Amino acid sequence: MSETSPTSKFIVLEGIDSQALQEQAESLYSSLRKDRARVHLTREPSDGPFGSQIRLILDGRLDVDEATLALFFATDRMDHLNKRGGILERLESGEHVICIRYCLSSFAYQALHSDLKWLRWINAECRLPDLTFFLDTPLDATLEGLVKSNSYTADELGQERKRLGKVRENYLMAIEVLRVEGEKIVVVDGNRSAVAIEKDIKKHVDNLMG
Amino acid sequence: MADISRGKFITFDGLDGSGLTEQVEMLREWLRRSGCDMYRVAFTAEPSQGPAGTEIRHALQGRLNIGEEALALLFAADRADHLDRFILPRLEAGIHVICDRYYLSFLAYQSHLLPDAWDWLWQLNARNWRPDLTIFLQSPPEVCMERIQQKFEPERYEQIEILRGVSMQFNRIIPLLRDERKEDIRIVDSSGSMESTHQSILKLVAPLILPPSEDLPKE
Predict the structure, then answer these.
(1) pLDDT tens, residue by residue, B167-208
(2) Exposed end of chain B (fewer CB within 10 Å): N or C?
(3) How far apart are the C-alpha atoms of A26 and A8, rounded to whole Å?
(4) Distance from CA of A119 to the nearest CA of B (A)
């Protein structure tokens, strides 16, 4: 892999609350733009061909088994990194990249069905982030948000609560493993106002940028 | 304990131009003419007909621009999907499955194209269902290239330098799979006539597919 510019940083945002991730990513992006930094905001699943397949699968329109889905995520990720105009090219050109969801999402969500060791292997060729934020939003707040945009029966809500609870546990387990290997991962207390979270994230990013 | 009612999984691998597709077709024809119950034998290929397989074909045809690592993962996704949807359910139901290309080809091609990624490629493949028998069609790269040049449009990997490199990888990987995973891989020389290659294949495959009372093919 070629050398990336020493100044450009790859920052990942993770968590169980996609809406909160979106808000915080946009805030960070605006803040860095105000600082006159060159920065690109992106997300996974990407808008490439494999991201499209993943969205079909998550929407229940295309049926594949869990191992295949995990491999689709890994394929999309590799393409997201290596394609023309992809993450690596931008970092090499001196642009910071903020990405909503990356390997850790696979280690949390796909770990509901596959073991972490295998998930780590299939994602082993992925460039590591310079800094990852895990937004630890309270389960209740996340579910409240979901209920507003989807209709759930009481049963479905109960199941979703259980599922997200397990995803959160998976996140925390994977974070432990990755931290031991030297990855910089900040667990951000999500039980605060958006502004407070924003300030916290910006502080860490400013430290990173040096 | 071995499940004696499970179908046999027989795979064919080799270089592009080694005659894989033709030989699998000849095998199918022979089984049909020999009165084999064709509902008990399923023929398939990789890349498969699934969503990942379709994208792979686009990549091989040069219609989809994609890097080698992403393509390796796409092959892995297609295999997982192919196993889950097509191969394993049939084997479980006692149907034999004959597959044109499986992971031996993947390991050989991808380890030539991604020389630093062997451990990763091996791990991508480690959990895949093993064939009961793999037939490797062996032809010198130059002979393969001659056959390829008769095609209308060459595909992504159909160049002599790649074929030579992949050929070396096949030679390295076959003993590895035999030793490490106790896999049954038979090498069949396919540089000669299609008929003689076909006869060699029948000797290996017929005993697995046909009931014991059937005669083996005559010389």
Answers:
(1) 999 999 999 999 999 999 999 999 999 999 999 999 999 999
(2) N
(3) 18
(4) 10
What is the identity of the amino acid at A107?
Answer: F
With CB atoms and an 8 Å threshold, state whether A50 touches B70: yes
HEC profile of A158-179: HHHHHHHHHHHHHHHHHHHHHH
pTM of the predicted model as reported, rounded to 2 decimal places: 0.93
User: Which among B50, B70, B81 has the least Cβ separation from residue A78?
Assistant: B70
Q: Cα–Cα distance between B115 and B69 in angstroms, integer?
A: 11
Cβ contacts from A onto B, under 8 A: 68
Residue A125 with chain B: CB contacts under 8 Å: 69, 117, 120
Per the CB < 8 Å rule, is B66 touching A74?
no
Rounded distance between C-alpha atoms, residue B187 and residue B200, angstroms = 10
Domains of chain B in sequence order: 9-45+96-209 (3.40.50.300)
Q: What is the mean pLDDT of residues B49-64?
A: 95
Q: Order the strands of the B133-138 sheet from edge to edge.
A: B41-45, B96-100, B9-14, B133-138, B185-189
Domain boundaries, chain A: 10-38+96-209
How many angstroms separate the CA of residue A203 from the nearest CA in chain B? 35
Q: Which residues contact A91 (CB under 8 A, 6 or more apart)?
A: A4, A5, A8, A9, A10, A97
Cβ atoms of B142 and B160 closer than 8 Å: yes
Strand A131-136 and strand B9-14: pairing? unpaired
Q: Which residues of B14-27 are buried (b: 16+ CB within 10 A; e: fewer)?
A: bbbbbbbeebbebb
Rg (CA), chain A: 17
B6-31 pLDDT, tens per residue? 999 999 999 999 999 999 999 999 99
Sequence-distant (6+) residues with CB within 8 A of B196 are none
Strands B185-189, B41-45: pairing kind:
unpaired
Query: What is the CATH number that goes with domain A10-38+96-209?
Result: 3.40.50.300
